[in-house]
Design brief:
The termini are far apart. The chain has two domains: 61 residues, Orthogonal Bundle (434 Repressor (Amino-terminal Domain)), CATH 1.10.260; 43 residues. 67% of the residues lie in helices and 0% in strands. It has 129 residues and is mostly helical.
C-alpha cells in the first residue's frame, strides 16, 4: 500500500487515536461514517483535519501524512500510546484558562524545567572527582 495514500493516512489516524475501525474513527472525529468512506474512495483526506489533529495531539505531520519518523513531535518513540490521564487532565485544565493565564502557566513550567535542569547539572558537577 502507498504510504501517502488516504488509506495509509487514515490507518495512521486510527493508530494515533487508538481505534481499529473506520466506524470508531468517525465517532472520534464526529463525522459520518460514510464521509470517512468517501475519503478512502476518493483517496483524499482533508488536510485541515490532519493538521488540527496533529497540533492538538502533538503528532508529527511528517509521520501522519508520509509515514516517516516518529509518531510524536518530540521524537519520544512512544509508539501507539495515547496521552495518559495526567496529560489529558493537564490539557483540559489548560484549555479552560484565559490566554494570559496560559502564558503565565507556560512561563511557570518553563521556569520549573530550567530550575530542574540546573539542579541536575549542579548534582552532576558535585559528583565529579
Amino acid at each position: 500500500m502507498n504510504k501517502y495514500s488516504a488509506n495509509s493516512v487514515l490507518d495512521r489516524l486510527q493508530q494515533a487515536v487508538g481505534v481499529k475501525s473506520d466506524s470508531a474513527l468517525s465517532r472520534k472525529f464526529g463525522i459520518n461514517r460514510a464521509t470517512l468512506g468517501n475519503w478512502r474512495t476518493r483517496n483524499s483526506v482533508p488536510y485541515s483535519i490532519c493538521v488540527l489533529f496533529a497540533i492538538e495531539n502533538h503528532i508529527s505531520l511528517n509521520w501522519l501524512l508520509a509515514g516517516d519518523g516518529s509518531m510524536f513531535c518530540d521524537g519520544s518513540g512512544q509508539g501507539t500510546e495515547m496521552l495518559n490521564s495526567e496529560h489529558e487532565k493537564l490539557i483540559e485544565l489548560f484549555d479552560e484558562l484565559s490566554v494570559e493565564q496560559r502564558q503565565e502557566a507556560l512561563q511557570f513550567m518553563s521556569d520549573k524545567k530550567r530550575i530542574n535542569d540546573l539542579e541536575t547539572a549542579v548534582l552532576a558537577l558535585q559528583q565529579k572527582p
